[in-house]
From TrEMBL:
This is Uncharacterized protein. It comes from the Bacteria. InterPro entries: Ig-like_fold (IPR013783). The lineage of its organism: Bacteria, Pseudomonadati, Bacteroidota, Flavobacteriia, Flavobacteriales.
Amino acid sequence: MKILKLLFLVGLFVFISCDTIVECVINKRPEIEDKSFDVGNVNGYYYQKLTSEIKNETGDDNYIYNYEIYGDLPGGLEMSTDNRILIIEGMPNASGTFSFTIYLYVDAPEYYDEDSGQYKDGMCSNSTSKKITIIIN
């Protein structure tokens, strides 16, 4: 039985790249800041920002961050980005509770692996999402 387990492990390493295993142990992946959004007022200026990062990475600014919003952003508010920062601002024109999901997709800097002859990015995951709720009174 021990021989079967050993053969299984050897086969696993043959078919799975060690780089992939190491990358996921280090767990380099994008994260969106865990933050509650402020309550806003109709016709009052609203500003909120989220800063994203790459977990277990000191060179966060070397990545390209792409944000998308799915759901109901309050009327009068717009999204803008500045690489790692997502900004929602404007003058809300209706009251209510608005829920949406922010999706973050990250393009990592690639490096050339001479052993495999391929370009790699060293990420375990290239995307994440976070559900957000904004209340406008």
